Amino acid sequence: PLQDGGHRTLASVEGGKAVVVETGVPEGFQPTQVKDLPRIEDTLIVAIMRGEKTIVPHGDHTVEPDDRLLLFATDAARDSLDKLL
Predict the structure, then answer these.
(1) What pLDDT is stored for residue 42 in this prediction?
(2) Which is deepest, 30, 36, 55, 56, by most CB within 10 Å?
């Protein structure tokens, strides 16, 4: 399992122009609403996975420690994903 901000590329889209990435939320992360997370250009949080539950997030949903996030990002934005959490 992904922990402490680890990233794993799950899929490449359009010949590598975009990626689907799973990232782990660190254990000590302060719970934060999606709308209050840092904005990363060309990146979307498409799902919050919490245990057996999958949440399609809106701005008021909260990201919590040990969640896993499913992100869609351009390949150029991939290097900025560490700034999200």
Answers:
(1) 93
(2) 55
CA nearest neighbour of 85 among 26, 13, 35, 45? 26
Q: Which residue has the tokens 């560490």?
A: 82
68-74 and 43-50 as β-strands: parallel, antiparallel, unpaired?
A: antiparallel
Pull the structure tokens for residue 33.
């609403």
Bridge partner residues of 68 (DSSP)? 24, 49
Contacts (Cβ under 8 Å, ≥6 apart) of 80:
40, 41, 43
Closest CA to 9 of 77, 60, 58: 77
**CA dist list (Å): 6 to 23, 30, 55:** 6, 17, 20
Q: Give the chain's length.
A: 85
Between 67 and 16, name the one with better pLDDT. 67
Q: What is the pLDDT of residues 12-62, one digit of tens each?
A: 998 889 999 999 998 899 999 999 999 899 999 999 999 999 999 999 999
